[in-house]
Amino acid sequence: ETGVTQSPTHLIKTRGQQVTLRCSSQSGHNTVSWYQQALGQGPQFIFQYYREEENGRGNFPPRFSGLQFPNYSSELNVNALELDDSALYLCASSLVAGGTGELFFGEGSRLTVL
Amino acid sequence: DQQVKQNSPSLSVQEGRISILNCDYTNSMFDYFLWYKKYPAEGPTFLISISSIKDKNEDGRFTVFLNKSAKHLSLHIVPSQPGDSAVYFCAARAPGTSGSRLTFGEGTQLTVNP
Description:
By secondary structure, chain A is mainly beta. Chain A is built from no helices and eleven strands.
């Protein structure tokens, strides 16, 4: 059973650019969620995808968007990058959308915006 | 609006002693609480959870206590081991939200000294 994997692990972008982060869910999991963890803070919910549709969104602007593919892998896209977007981006998978919060996280993608 | 707060950024205990990590919340609608543990360069891993209808849940060396009237929960680790050294996040879920939409606290760095 493979765990949640994310790529890339580290990347550097400049303000105004666009970035795509990728996530491969744990085998058998049909729900993926994305979190942003700023330095010294806890993870903040960005959004969740279930059966390829967004079905929950946190307090993030529309320039944060995502996709979930038929194989349950996922992408997080961020347009018009700002300095405050610098953070660790965590992908988490779970078996059902209405579960009790037991998530399986990847190791994260650390984004630095200069 | 920080609905889940961990007021202690760090905690240091001796091996074999008890570690107590605390968490306060403001949203009385939260129906499920979880603790996650995070090692450097790894994603958070689920540790233990408790439903709001219970006041205690135990799993081996880990026990979570919930005091709803005080909107407070705590994680007890006994006996503490050096391998327990990690950042611990308290998280909560509100009913009616997707199962993977969690609100996290800021985390507490636990250091267990040999």
